[in-house]
Description:
- With about 500 residues, the protein is of the alpha/beta class.
- It has 21 helices and eight strands.
- The strands form two sheets. A six-stranded mixed sheet has the order 2-3-1-4-5-6, sandwiched between helices. It has a two-stranded antiparallel ribbon with strand order 7-8.
- Strand 4 (about 85-90), helix 2 (about 95-100) and strand 5 (about 110-115) form a beta-alpha-beta unit.
- The protein is elongated and about 85 Å long.
Amino acid sequence: MSEPLPQRSISILIAALGGEGGGVMAEWLVEAATQSGLPVQATSIPGVAQRTGATTYYLEIFPARRDTLGGREPMMALTPNPGNVDIMVASELMEAGRAMQNGFVSPERTTLIASTHRIYATSEKMQMADGRFDSDKVLAAAAGLAKLAVLFDMREIARVNGTVINAVLFGAMAGSGSLPLTRAACEEAIGKSGRGAQASLRGFAAGFDLAAARAQPPAPAAPDAEPDIMALGEARLLDYQGPSYVALFRERMKAIQPLGGKLAQETARHLALWMSFEDIIRVADLKTRASRFERVRKEARAGDGEPVVIIDFLKPGVDEFASILPPALGRRLVNWAESKDKMHAYNVGMHIKTTSVLGFLLVRSLAWLKAWRPHSFRYQVEQGQIDAWLHRIREAAGRDHDLALEIAECARLIKGYSDTHRRGKANFLAIMDALVDNPPTSDPKEQAAAIARARNAALADPEGKALSSSLGKPTMGGKPVFWLAKSP
């Protein structure tokens, strides 16, 4: 008597970011299933750019050889259904989180294969504060929602084996025991892929072995000693402007360090970040460093002799031009532009191929202005505001330590470049004016609480609407309204 046929196909949903070989992995699965005589079907849904979504691949494999079906063909779906996925594969931890949120992982059925590394999404990077999602919550959810969770840093395993993460993911799938495919069939499919097959096989083997051992996320390492913020700040500023700038940082901290504790630590951290403000000189320097070109080539996985073209988009305007002028000229230009509402009128979009000789020299010429920076308008403005901020901290520390700490933490608002920096700086100055220089209360505890509320409102809404509501007045300069006589 023949054995009964399986009641359904094995469904596999893969979520992979661009460049991670998700399509190749789907091809390996199809090839391995076909060579094993199993009916298989695959579809894909392209994702979008800038890390706002992964490309998804959906496969169904019927776990019975075609020659046992008596000429019949199994019915297979083209898209996954929540609650009906047998193997969920995610090439990055938050993609696993999305899959669980969308109902594709169930404790009755689903094996979750996911890498625990992070590639931050655009929405995480856009936040004024630390916008990163909590990885621990995703790991805890995986333990509770998946029938079997195979989680480890597959990107690192791929790096060690000189391959792409798709090979490690494929190995983890096979090693989990959830695929109706033998290891030999999977390795044969990889071997037919040609170039890079040996490295892929190494990655596959590493993923297979870890999954077969039911690898779990490694226990968290013992925390390192408290980082030396002063040393880190000095290294950053040495790279930014040189030894004399490091000496200025040390001199400023002399009056803060006796305050001790978290106040000195946080002030040093924010001071180093603020002093290394991102002007057009800094941006040009970072864009034309050899380390950047090497990183891009590595990310593109370009081989020796393969050309890589980098095109940078720049949109400088009045503010950027004024920032590198002498202080008197820069201030005059900014005042004129603001009075005429022309701050954004002359922003010109530029596409510069920094991998070409002309494009590189054009951008690098701005980086060579580093020696001029201390004589520029932007430098003068930033240093004056930094000194005023430090004075407020010292003065507040004489009244209340927590109040001084809240003032120090307001420097978190100042970050980024161009419009991002302008919005953050406007919010910072609004809080300094309304709650530090002209506080509505003489109670330092109430004042500290008000500053914390306002800062959190500004971090949650960089456009300043929430902060304006908190302070009861606008924080950003509005555009002038011109009244015209009614035409006859």
